[in-house]
Amino acid sequence: EVQLVESAGGLVQPGRSLTVSCAASGFTFSNYAMHWIRQVPTKGLEWVASISPSGGGTYYRDSVKGRFTISRHNAKNTLYLQMDSLRSEDSATYYCATHSELGFDSWGQGVMVTGSS
Amino acid sequence: EIVLTQSPTTIGASPGEKVTITCRATSSVSYIYWYQQKPGASPKPWIYDTSKLASGVPNRFSGSGSGTSYSLTINTMETEDAATYYCQQWSSSPWTFGGGTKLELK
User: Fold this and answer.
1) Cα distance between residue B102 and residue A113, in whole Å
2) Does the beta-carbon distance from A109 to B33 stay under 8 Å?
């Protein structure tokens, strides 16, 4: 069974950094592109970043480019999202997700990140 | 960026009723993907490649459309179908979602 378990999020002051992780199990992690998607409470979904199976290709939405870094450690079956220079508008629940023909296939339980002073 | 607009934003349906949710794109997309999300839970893939049902999705659901206009239809509403449904496109980065349609049980 595919499992994606995100690390705890937290309350972060605007301008500071936070790294969240996603531990994967139940599938061959190194074979799959992975994504981060966020959801503002009671609002919709927004794609944030993607990474190729090898980690050699990374893709970001414009609003996080230069501030967020997606990475992966295939030997540890773990996906990361480093968020620097956090803004209040980055406050959301962040989900990691696998990629398949179904689109964003399996999703983690989500981790809440709040940027507030 | 391709903007996806879903309508209606909220809809109420009684058991047995037919429900249709539409998703319109600002530019043509090759396929649309649909996700179901229930309160407190993560989204689940529901329909992919416009009309293919994900594993476990009841066949009372169907998807159709092309170009800039797509729809998700429930032939006969059931209690368990109450949820929020999101459409999404992979045709052009950034990958975008519709704003969601909340389907409530009447």
Assistant:
1) 24
2) no
Contact A108, A22 (CB under 8 A): yes
Torsion of CA A4, B38, B50, A45, to 10 degrees: -70
Each residue's pLDDT expressed in tens, for chain B with a length of 106 residues: 999 999 999 999 999 999 999 999 999 999 999 999 999 999 999 999 999 999 999 999 999 999 999 999 999 999 999 999 999 999 999 999 999 999 999 9
For chain B, the residues whose C-beta falls within 8 A of a C-beta of chain A are: 33, 35, 42-45, 48-49, 54, 86, 88, 90, 93-100
Name the amino acid, one letter, at A33. A
Query: d(Cα A110, Cα A52) in Å, to the nearest integer?
Result: 21
Q: Do A109 and B42 touch (CB under 8 A)?
A: yes
Tokens (6 digits) for A117 = 């002073």
Show the tokens assigned to A5: 């378990």
What are A11-24's pLDDT values in tens digits? 999 999 999 999 99
Closest residue in B to A111 (Cα) is B42
